[in-house]
């Protein structure tokens, strides 16, 4: 029997059923049970409340973006023509995105193991969550949703230098896998993988997710990290709060600095430009090859069983 549809007057229906709400979607649960990581976006399943959540999130961020976001993000928002009143279709996003940098948003059913995620970036694919947070949980969600991924991440993917940086970051994962491929001692192999992963995850966190950039006048800061760009409260806190420590991005600090995901970040790092960020990823890879990431400081983030397996599988393939 067909799913009832409510006409919202926008050329697209909205499901009267449970919709695609994060942690509450039967469609996602079925895909996960079937082992389907990559999925199509079943747009007809979005409920009216899903579209309302997007509209509220988008409308309240507009002023914050103008005040705190870097110029290339603002250009990206404009060039993607994201709808303000409804959840965007990934096909429409890709129609504007792909011609600019070759990147595409690729729907996923949930968590993407670390190596698989980095490999997607290498292939100019961005794993994109298709669910959206519940309307009563707009301020904080401990996992990605489509607003974080599409409104927070993807506008930056329209910038050539930033997109190339993501690809180079994906290359680093392949370097990591190849470097441990010949290690026969499994305990040592695991130790090395865990340390290098922790370094890569910290780099990604303090740059792609929570990165700052000096303003065009050399004073103040602008935001380019998606975790900040999708957070109404933290984007202002990151730039204005006197309690936040802000330092120039130093690789030796970043790879040894743990972080927590459930609080406003007390420590942030800034880069000079996206060209500078690209060079820093090259430095990260050079450190990896030299063994300087084999013993980074312990602590967060933890490496899940799926993350470990993804790197081990890649190292076998590289052997």
Give a written overview of the molecule.
Helix 2 (about 50-70) runs parallel beside helix 10 and helix 7 crosses helix 13 (about 305-319). The protein has 13 helices and eight strands. The chain is α/β, with parallel strands linked by helices. Helices cover about 50% and strands about 10% of the residues. The longest helix is centred in the middle third of the chain and has 24 residues, at about 185-210. The model is unreliable at about 1-10 (pLDDT under 50). The strands form three sheets. A four-stranded mixed β-sheet has the order 6-5-8-7. A two-stranded antiparallel sheet has the order 1-2. The N and C termini lie far apart (about 50 Å). The chain is globular. The protein has helices spanning about 25-35, 50-70, 70-80, 90-100, 115-120, 145-155, 160-180, 185-210, 225-230, 230-240, 250-255, 275-290, 305-319; strands spanning about 5, 15, 105-110, 125-130, 210-215, 220-225, 245-250, 265-270. Strand 7, helix 11 (about 250-255) and strand 8 form a beta-alpha-beta unit. The protein has a single domain, classed as Aromatic amino acid hydroxylase (Phenylalanine Hydroxylase).
